[in-house]
Amino acid sequence: MAKVNVGLVQMSCTADKQENLQKAVFKVREAAQKGAQIVCLQELFTSLYFCDVENYDNFQLAEPIPGPSTDELSKLAAELNIVIIASLFEKRAQGLYHNTTAVLDADGSYLGKYRKMHIPDDPGFYEKFYFTPGDLGYKVFKTKYATIGVLICWDQWYPEAARITALMGAEILFYPTAIGWATSQDNVTNIEQYNAWQTIQRSHAVANGVHVVSVNRVGQEGELKFWGGSFFSNPFGTIIYQASHSDEEVVVRELDLSKTDYYRTHWPFFRDRRIDSYQPITKRLIDE
Fold this sequence. Notes:
By secondary structure, the protein is of the alpha/beta class. It has a single domain (3-282), classed as Nitrilase/N-carbamoyl-D-aminoacid amidohydrolase (4-Layer Sandwich), CATH 3.60.110.10. The chain is built from five helices and 15 strands. It has helices spanning 17-33, 68-80, 159-167, 187-208, 259-266, and strands spanning 3-10, 38-41, 83-93, 96-104, 110-115, 140-142, 147-150, 172-176, 180-182, 211-215, 218-221, 224-227, 231-233, 239-242, 249-256. It has a six-stranded mixed β-sheet with strand order 5-4-3-2-1-15. Helix 1 (17-33) runs parallel beside helix 2 (68-80) and helix 3 packs parallel to helix 4 (187-208). The termini are far apart. The model has no long low-confidence stretch (mean pLDDT 97).
């Protein structure tokens, strides 16, 4: 399809997992009513962002994928004839956990999952305590409405991840995200951080000639204020829509996938790539 209606759900969460799931279901329905054919939820939407602390009790939040949440969302996808992108805390086995996104097609079928490859470990973002790095590689999913690529939060800072996913045929890059400001920070730092976050993702759109959809959460959780600001970018980095930094929003926008061919033809970055010269990128540091 040349054009597809894409919805994003930017919301706050509570400590009640079932309450968050039902809230997400309600908002996905709202997106469908607005015409969405693909809906993306934010990172780890069924819980608070528990990675702000290292607490063994939080492993109880995890579930298998497929599992209870994907079962419920699959029924919803089939009922509404929409694709749902759902970021969940995956329990793969005893003592083995991933930060994972499941993709459910418009007939309710489970298309597969992507496991977050880049795992941060910073004050307030202690993800290495919880998550094993992804081992499925980069993924694309051929849904009813578009071939999509999914990357997760910290992945968004890495052009290699976006490039590989685009080379695999992704027409849209989705980034379910949970990122915010420390409440102790000044506003100048806050603005600089948000601008860097948005700029790097817009650069992935430009470099690869694909739409980018980034979906963040809002609300204050402990010492972290999630900065929202979810957005759609066209394949040349132009912001189609940017959400509030504080309010919950359900937004649907039409994306014209034929723009990829237009921009890749007029700005032929793919044509001019010197793949014969890129081997050094696989080194940790070029320090010879």
